[in-house]
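New here. Invent one.

***
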Amino acid sequence: MAESRATATWTRRHLLGLGGLRSGELRALLTATRTYAEQGGRSDDRPLEGRTVTNLFFEDSTRTRASFTLAARRLGADVIEFSSVGSSLSKGETPADMARVIESMGVDALVIRDKWAGSPACLARAVSCSVINAGDGSHEHPTQGILDLYTLAEDKGRLDGFDLSGLRVAIVGDLASSRVARSDAWGLNLLGAEVVLVGPKLLVPDSYRGFGGGCEVARDFDAVLPTLDAVIMLRIQFERGSGAALGTAREYRSAYGLTEDRAALMKDEAVVMHPGPMNRGVEIDGSVADGERSLVLRQVAVGVSARMAVLSACTGAARLS
């Protein structure tokens, strides 16, 4: 039996990824994101008043960390910031033990970002408070996926029901290293969009046709561009070893960079997205990133509302339906 969008609710304590969610659960989070976005990323009732959120960021972050901090504070929560430097992890304490210690202080939610895939899932098994994945290795980045889906739906006038069927979206670049790509692909498929993965075989193997529930794989970016309603560009993640066998940045840009000339091949109403940070002049030209069809800054702005929605839902401060 098809799931009813009107009655689907969010009842989970954790958000570890978009893979495995039901479409109604994802739509419930997106609908809550819409509520907060329409309030300018604010909350009048402060549902997390008296609660505590701890950010465990063991990997560098600007957008995600800042937006989670803002989201928690705008919901009324106290926020504790942790990093591996200066914590007991440097003395050999395990992340699970550290999480239990923090939880015992009365923490209601742990937001974790880590270079190791699976870290949030490990912590979720160790604690009883909510665990939210802020990006783990090359596994998933679910809140980035939520804000990307919301931004696209908003631009295409699909906020009522978040039905993205009929849209063709390409995710281009370093998919082998990208946790954002995995969350975006899962979410786009759940909402009915057609997903195309574009890049060289080293970064987008043929086996990725099963990525995110099922995608098309393409090598010729120029051939695909005129068919798209949106392009999500990814940077080459040199810190994870990508790019070592790709040749020069100029060669990569020549084949897969979203240059001004390539952008001119797109439909008039097609849009450009990027989760950031950007390698300008490599995967995307600055003029395209800052151009009229770019939704990059809108993605950043929506991030606070998306994280407010997730924090409210996972802690039980708001029942989403």
Q: What stands out?
A: The first helix runs from residue 23 to 38. The radius of gyration is 19 Å. Residues 1-7 have pLDDT under 50 and may be disordered. Residues 23-141+303-314 form a domain with the Rossmann fold fold (CATH 3.40.50.1370).
